[in-house]
Amino acid sequence: MLVKNWMSKNVITVDINESLIDAVKLLKHNDIGRLPVMKKGEMVGIVTDRDVKRASASDAVSLEIHELLYLLSKLKIEEIMTKDPITVPPDYTVEETADVLLENKISSTPVVNDQDQLVGIITQNDLFRALISLTGERKKGIQFAFKVEDRPSSTNELADIIRNYNGRLASILSSYQNSPEGYKNVYIKAYQIDREEISELKNELRGKATMLYFVDQRENKREVYAL
Fold it and tell me: What is the pTM of this model?
């Protein structure tokens, strides 16, 4: 899943010569947390709501409100922006982008193409939407979690059992996080499984793997066996 398919393409920006008050208005009016800073069509920096608050707070000491407003109207974006901001290319995967945000402790980042042109912005919310799509979470179905042997056919065996019960597979994910050596955790989201066959299905699945938990979103039923 590539960033270009999940990013916001209509990016709200601010010109480098605009004032701090102009940035505040844009941030509040559009309910956003950061603005790419442009100079003659080229992105030269970024200003965040944190930058704005920091600049406002530092200038607020011992000033009357009218003095503060005047000062903020004279303070230019160039003086408070972050130069050379962190960016990602449009062909980055959402996983790579999530790692960039996490590593740098930021909530969004501009998307820049090979010609250094600003083509979008990707936020945590965009990544959450991608995750929901990837896991099939919008479909009210059943999620199974297993600890299985780390061998090529182990996941397919579980998927085949679910298919034998006419289950439609929405997603299959695997992870080695918090799993012992020689094992992996597998998460399968399925739907259209007959409720009357759930118990029999779970018993058959347990014959192939250790079931960690079972969540039936149709009935808001949750069973946690082991973690």
Answer: 0.77
Nearest to 126 by CA among 105, 110, 150, 103: 110
Tell me, what's the pLDDT at 69?
61
Host domain of residue 192 = 137-224
**DSSP β-ladder status, 168-175 and 108-112:** unpaired
24 and 102 co-located in one domain: yes
Q: Which of 132, 162, 197 is the last residue of a domain?
A: 132
d(CA 71, CA 82): 20
Look up residue 62 and give its two tokens: 């011992």
Q: Identify whether residues 158 and 101 lie together within a single domain.
A: no
Q: Do 170 and 64 lie in a common domain? A: no
Cβ atoms of 152 and 189 closer than 8 Å: no
CA 47, 80, 114: angle at the middle one, nearest 5? 45
Q: Decide if pLDDT at 64 tops 70.
A: no
Same domain for 83 and 145?
no
Q: Where are the alpha helices (DSSP H) in the chain?
A: 20-30, 49-59, 65-74, 77-80, 94-104, 124-135, 154-164, 198-206
Provide mean pLDDT across the span 200-219: 94
> How many angstroms separate the Cα of 17 from the Cα of each of 20, 39, 81?
10, 8, 11
